[in-house]
Amino acid sequence: MTEIEEKLAHLIRMVDDLSDVVAKQQTTIDVMEKRVQMLMQRAAQQEADQGSYIYTGPEKPPHY
Q: What is the rounded CA–CA span in Å between residue 22 and residue 18?
């Protein structure tokens, strides 16, 4: 019976640790979502300021 109780205590501790990890990850996700939203707003504002120009990378030389 003692072995089962030890295993149960270990599992409970592991679940608590994993719960803490998930909570930290959710906090990180929330911050990242806010940053992405801010970047999207900034990009939309820049597009509005410059017209509908979209940067597609460096232009290829005429011989291509």
A: 6
**Whole-number pLDDT of residue 13:** 98
Q: How does pLDDT run across 11-28, given as a tens digit for each residue?
A: 999 999 999 999 999 999
Residue with tokens 């291509």: 64
Question: What pTM was computed for the model?
Answer: 0.63
**Quick check: 53 and 47 in contact, CB under 8 A?**
yes
DSSP per-residue codes, the chain? -HHHHHHHHHHHHHHHHHHHHHHHHHHHHHHHHHHHHHHHHHHHHHHHHH-S----SSPPPTT-
Amino acid identity, residue 56?
T
